[in-house]
Write a structure and sequence with these properties.
By secondary structure, the protein is of the alpha/beta class. It has a single domain (3-217), classed as Rossmann fold, CATH 3.40.50.300. It has helices at residues 21-36, 50-60, 69-93, 104-114, 119-130, 145-155, 169-185, 199-213; strands spanning 9-14, 40-44, 97-101, 137-142, 190-194. Strands 2-3-1-4-5 form a five-stranded parallel beta sheet, with helices on both faces. Helix 2 packs antiparallel against helix 3 (69-93). This is Thymidylate kinase. Belongs to the thymidylate kinase family. ATP binds at residues 15-22. Pfam families: Thymidylate_kin (PF02223).
Length: 218
Amino acid sequence: MGSSILSGTFISFEGPDGAGKTSALRAITAQIMDGLGDQLVITREPGGNPISESIRSIILDRANTAMDYRTEALLYAAARRQHLAQTILPALEADQLVLCDRYVDSSIAYQGAGRQIGEDAVAEMNQFATDGLLPDLTIYFDVPAEVGLRRIQAHRQADQVDRLDVEKTAFHDRVRAAYLRLQAADPDRIKRIDATQEPAKVVEQALTLIKQTAPRYF
């Protein structure tokens, strides 16, 4: 199944921790929400509805240090399935523009490569969870791991740092390398932005990609 059979447009934001994708999404939302109104849906993963948000709280709780890596991957996939069924698909069926903070590529990068449980295995798991639905566009905000980790240390409060943020640099290096492999393998869908640039420039480039992919909303 692909989003081409649905009338709406699905765009995901991806990147390593500290890349600034969530901040960019907020800035873009502020710029376009008045013009789009009810046509715009902003959501996130894991999360996006009450059931998926409940799963999110379990996954990211720093107290859950005993969580098995495959359990983690399965929980992400479960949250994604519920998010897709309850939030994303209804929005696309209603001809809305969906901007989502993370989607399948995150699981492949973080659990498949970062946790080293296998990129192909995680991709297959999520193929089942999503019935093959991929975004029309994925904007990948790219930063070296050390840059992203410095940003986290400088700007996030202690209660905003989750289980994945506290992983060692080698983990985040594997995550970034996986993202770059994904982008190289699917350059038509995944567009890379150098997120070490000034935030305003990053937002400008991301918004240009969105307008090019979904011009009828603007």
